[in-house]
Amino acid sequence: MEPKYKRILLKLSGEALAGDKKFGLNYDVITDICRSIKKCADLGVQIGIVVGGGNFWRGRESGGMDRTRADHMGMLATTINALAIADVLESLGVEVRVQTAITMQQVAEPYIRNRAIRHLEKHRVVIFGCGTGNPFFSTDTAAALRAVEIEAEVFFKATMVDGVYDKDPHRYPDAVKYETLTYSEVLAKGLAVMDSTAATLCKDNGMSMLVFNMERPDNIYDAIMGQDVGTLIK
Ligand code: UDP
């Protein structure tokens, strides 16, 4: 069977890498996720990954700290995650490059869009660290931005719920899941699936997003094969 997509941008939240402890890195969980990514890469799908940092640090939850400094710490956290995923993917035999939006050339390549595309064309997975490189943004927005820049066909947002609901399904048992949505609906209803900056960027640039559950890592593979997982936003 042929994959539905040739080039995707996958956003992994930091939390998805932490397992039950919700903090730090759980290598069993990361290995399961990376196996699913490898299955997709082996089909020839070009994969860019933006990773969050919430398993270590979120700037907006830092209390009284200077927000810009707190966000710098958050961006460094995303880089720790990027390196961890790169290491596991490499150990599975997948070619990987890490590019960071804040230069740290001893650690990773700087983010250069055209170079990222060359890597993708050579079937290397590219992991983008440091979000957008700017404070006051999220890695969802970074993922939307990179998706548009690398001309991905779709933005996969892997989360801890199996799609978008009208209210928090962890708190309300009567929450109803949407099969499809528009960005205008997401913005008008204030649905908590992503921040409005990310939604607006996708809306203005015609980038569709598939939101699905990462607790079943094979959802990445199923989504690439065009199976019905999660909620599609257009
Ligand atoms: N961050 C930032 N600019 C960006 C992306 C991320 O300053 O463009 C910082 C911000 O402090 C954020 C943290 O990095 O809280 C981790 O990212 P995020 O909260 O999006 O991670 P996730 O919740 O997806 O794990």
From TrEMBL:
Pfam families (UniProt xref): AA_kinase
Transferase found in the keyword field: yes
Regulation: Inhibited by UTP.
Binding site for UMP: G53, D71, T132, G133, N134, P135, F136, F137, S138, T139
Catalyzed reaction equations: UMP + ATP = UDP + ADP
Location in or out of the cell: Cytoplasm
Residue span, Aspartate/glutamate/uridylate kinase domain: 6-213
Subcellular location, principal: cytoplasm
Enzyme class, UniProt record, top EC level: transferase
Binding site for ATP: K11, L12, S13, G14, G54, R58, T159, Y165, D168
Example GO molecular function: ATP binding
Pathway annotation from the record: Pyrimidine metabolism; CTP biosynthesis via de novo pathway; UDP from UMP (UMPK route): step 1/1
Record carries keyword Phosphoprotein: no
Alphabetically ordered keywords of this record: ATP-binding, Cytoplasm, Kinase, Nucleotide-binding, Pyrimidine biosynthesis, Transferase
EC number: 2.7.4.22
Family: Belongs to the UMP kinase family.
Record function comment: Catalyzes the reversible phosphorylation of UMP to UDP.
PANTHER family linked to this entry: URIDYLATE KINASE, URIDYLATE KINASE PUMPKIN, CHLOROPLASTIC
Assembly description: Homohexamer.
Full protein name: Uridylate kinase
Gene: pyrH
